[in-house]
Amino acid sequence: MFFGSDNTSGVHPKLMEALTKANDGYASPYGTDRWTAELTERLRDLFQAPDALVYPMTSGTGTNAAILAAMTPPWGIIYCHKTAHIEVDERNSVPFYSGGAKLKPLPGTASRLAPEELHGEVISDGAKDDIHASPPAAVSLTNLTEFGELYRPADIAAIADAAQLPLHLDGARFANAMAASHASPWEMTREISALSLGATKTGAMAAEAAILFDPSLKNAFESNRMRGGHNLSKARYVSAQILAWLQDDLWLELATQANAMGARLAAGITEIGGELAYEVAGNMVFARLTRAQHAKAKARGAVYNLWGAQPVIGDPDQPMLARFVASWSTTEADVDALLATLTD
Amino acid sequence: MFFGSDNTSGVHPKLMEALTKANDGYASPYGTDRWTAELTERLRDLFQAPDALVYPMTSGTGTNAAILAAMTPPWGIIYCHKTAHIEVDERNSVPFYSGGAKLKPLPGTASRLAPEELHGEVISDGAKDDIHASPPAAVSLTNLTEFGELYRPADIAAIADAAQLPLHLDGARFANAMAASHASPWEMTREISALSLGATKTGAMAAEAAILFDPSLKNAFESNRMRGGHNLSKARYVSAQILAWLQDDLWLELATQANAMGARLAAGITEIGGELAYEVAGNMVFARLTRAQHAKAKARGAVYNLWGAQPVIGDPDQPMLARFVASWSTTEADVDALLATLTD
Amino acid sequence: MFFGSDNTSGVHPKLMEALTKANDGYASPYGTDRWTAELTERLRDLFQAPDALVYPMTSGTGTNAAILAAMTPPWGIIYCHKTAHIEVDERNSVPFYSGGAKLKPLPGTASRLAPEELHGEVISDGAKDDIHASPPAAVSLTNLTEFGELYRPADIAAIADAAQLPLHLDGARFANAMAASHASPWEMTREISALSLGATKTGAMAAEAAILFDPSLKNAFESNRMRGGHNLSKARYVSAQILAWLQDDLWLELATQANAMGARLAAGITEIGGELAYEVAGNMVFARLTRAQHAKAKARGAVYNLWGAQPVIGDPDQPMLARFVASWSTTEADVDALLATLTD
Amino acid sequence: MFFGSDNTSGVHPKLMEALTKANDGYASPYGTDRWTAELTERLRDLFQAPDALVYPMTSGTGTNAAILAAMTPPWGIIYCHKTAHIEVDERNSVPFYSGGAKLKPLPGTASRLAPEELHGEVISDGAKDDIHASPPAAVSLTNLTEFGELYRPADIAAIADAAQLPLHLDGARFANAMAASHASPWEMTREISALSLGATKTGAMAAEAAILFDPSLKNAFESNRMRGGHNLSKARYVSAQILAWLQDDLWLELATQANAMGARLAAGITEIGGELAYEVAGNMVFARLTRAQHAKAKARGAVYNLWGAQPVIGDPDQPMLARFVASWSTTEADVDALLATLTD
Fold this sequence. Notes:
homotetramer, alpha/beta, Aspartate Aminotransferase, domain 2, Aspartate Aminotransferase, domain 1, 2 domains, seven-stranded mixed beta sheet, 14 helices, 42% helix
């Protein structure tokens, strides 16, 4: 009953197998190996982006920061939702990598940027056009969002229109977004300058790909990657995992399973009187259950996180928000077992 | 009719005279001169802070940044009002000097921090207590605020209580705040760890003092000051100005004049149908006047700034916000002349 | 015939097996798993350092930078040899992570720091004791060095005595140094505040451990690790590899093999008239061979690097320096095959 | 008898007078005043550089750092002499402002860069052309150098040829260099991309001009100036000083006087048995005198600095290096009085 995060799940057997196969003698280092070359071709095809540059990475935070620092000068502004991982969970990595750029977190709606609000901020900041002020530089989106919501291609287009700025997409759960949207990779990224494509949360070991759809980011990104300590010598092992992950749409299959388990959980929680806090588009469920229910679940070994500040004491009927995350390895039995812990 | 900013005014004759007197042969460099020693003693007495460290500076931005970077690790959070100069007008100087710290701008009320809101943010950020999150480090206040409002000592105490964090005070218009509050320097700063004391806007040439009430900030501040390029060789000329400024309470006299002109202007604007946007505590007046009035004033040579985004076209009765700043050298005749440009 | 670098070799089967075993269901993320706990205990025992803190990492550069930035203020000096990886091969990662600290590269002898020279620099820099100057903060050693030389425990003690500063050890080839020195881990690190323990070059996939012998580095290191993007969610896979690597002294066995192949190669090169440029203590051989020999080897498929600036044209007898690196997977047959390519 | 540094001298009366004249009512802030406009025109004419951008500054360190950070990416190398102020006396300001760029200090000859050595370093660093390495970005020269030596235009041309990189000139004592060389400003700077023109050491209060001969540096320089805290509100007072300084070649007159006093001192020191350590091209004299002579001078009130590490005890005949700096206000009587203190 592990619903703490999808990063607590293991590695899919096909990726383990790919690692074993890639472990075949010597290979040229730092991404000059044949797996990385193949990965580049594979991702260019998938995203219909023949000029895209592809880099195997082991860290989503490192990927985000190295990309965003290539998209802004040290004095620029990067807009994001106030719940964004880069704003909330990366200990100032973007100001660090960029040498001082500002993240401007916006309230939006739930965990999604609101195009009109974004537009207003960018216009207002851009209108200053003054050396005292910080100029708009880029927007960073997360899809699925931090609350498990989905941006569809039309949503992203609306944001692009509103901002008139280069867009970065934090795709820690990009597979879940793709599985939920049924859009093509190209449709989902046609407005995007650079994508942090995360495989770790969907079945890989520690494998991400930085994809630069805008090749002019090359030198700054590669420099940030290097000085950040993210230029892997044995890159083949990351590339080989992602190749296996993409093979026969395994990534979508795994995400579909995780999403289905999210939906099953959401339905079950509603049934037992829980209240869903946000749209459940994929594998993340935010729900309010009573203090008594949480206590019971915890006592019975369920693992998940209460969300936000929690009152220390309170009456058993008090609703408390929790986050449940299903993963590629979550089964129906797991979901049902979790639901059982919440029920008497 | 210069009401664009108090930094457009000149230097008070007594400060010019002090410069001339200080220009007497050789002096030991980098603040080891006798003027700086005397300034330190004078400010320690004034603030009843025998351990305070004092540094002559030429820049408010440099002073703020060098201080704040000594009050936070690169991964910390500094809370400020969303209108704060450090947030809006210093081109990311705090993330720059601190190596990545985050300014967290809060809405507060008008241009003042709201203690309860601040408390909530600090508690919420502090409660994470997780390596992913950024820990609370300090609070920066501005007094007078950017909208010309005043924090009284009790307001600052409430903020200190709410935040339980070290406080920095941006005192670009500290003299105006002191003149408006009738508090003692000690009362106004007893909760403050470090003060950027600005004299430039109140009659000096380019003269500020960094005052570290908390002497443990010494090494980091001095290092930031040095590597930021703010360790002046001929420091005597700044210290001599501030000494003259403090002499016989000249600073309060000049600020009192500026504040009185602010009040006169506010009264006059109200009289001609303008609407004051914020409390006028000192020398800054934010007021809504009609587009027609602004057009007239501008045509007649009045200098001041419309504030915020402005619609390009509109009807003559449309109210438009403007900022007027009086300075130590503003006269009643200046105010009346400005008011005349806004009338019939 | 891959002698380009030990990072071109694969992963040892026992580490692959450990990965498979660790891939067992869910595990708590970010190093709170049982493998990482066990690794901490194992390394504390090995180094006789009960208070040491241990962090699984995927990058040597990231480990070095996150550690060193915890050992210096942004205005400090870190001394290293002019051939050090941090100085030559990490694209300014240390000034980046530290927010501006200076690496001071010293000539030393070949690739080792010379205690007397280091002492002179530290004393001279420390004697300034002036806010204009940068104060000495730490020393970084590499063992094996970049030229494959060895520091024995007595050498490190001499450096510690000379510098009177905290020491960092870049142990990308620490296993090779241990196998060459026959010292105990404790003997080799008793003067060291923090160790970047590299397993990648000696049989792991992308696995390093940061070991803080000085626990006061904790907060700054963990913060740098996080904001640098090196706090792995699925840390178990790194920890499991290193545990397998340490098991039954596999690490020393692998390093011993690599070192033996280095020795065999050095002997063979000498035999065919090549000149060794530096002491061959472990698995790296720097040798001068004729342009004709290099041309032959290259034509026959040998992979290794010429070292330093190379004249574009020249006569066939001209000596040219090359670097050959043996790895844990290098066999006698590999060495002999390489030697054959160099011989007619 | 103040020979500690030229920054201990006062402000020339004509500059004080210019300050008084500039103190005439209101002026537009942040360099949009008429004095700064006039200064720009004046310097463009003087340097025959119609596109040059000019910025009044109060700090040489701030000027150097804001310029150099515009000339390099965070991962670049800036070459300088090992005695350069930016390397030795600015507490890591260049790595700080640039977000991590490396200063590469070179031995050169005495305090001047040696073109051949510089060429070798640039070629060697540039040849790596590898993401691990740091690419060459710029060269920074100081004229007069830190040891008071002179680069003539031909010397600078030789350096430009050797480096094939953009050049920055730290002109803290540019007036002294001009007076010594009898070159035209254009001749002295035709190879230079940006100049830190210092007036402070030659008669100003705290007045420097950043001159960008390469206008493409504009945005990055202005951003660094702003976030560094060097965008002065009351810029007119700096510009007015420099205008007065340039008027009727006052700057050259003052520098000529300082240089003449340097020459007189050098001759006098030689006469009393002192040994000059470096060429005395301008106003700085480095000389070895006996411990007994220094003791006498000090006892008689002479102010100057011993240079480098000093043995604590020693015999009275031991030669000890000292630095003497003459300024615009040094008189023949001052020099003779100093010499008298050194003689019995």
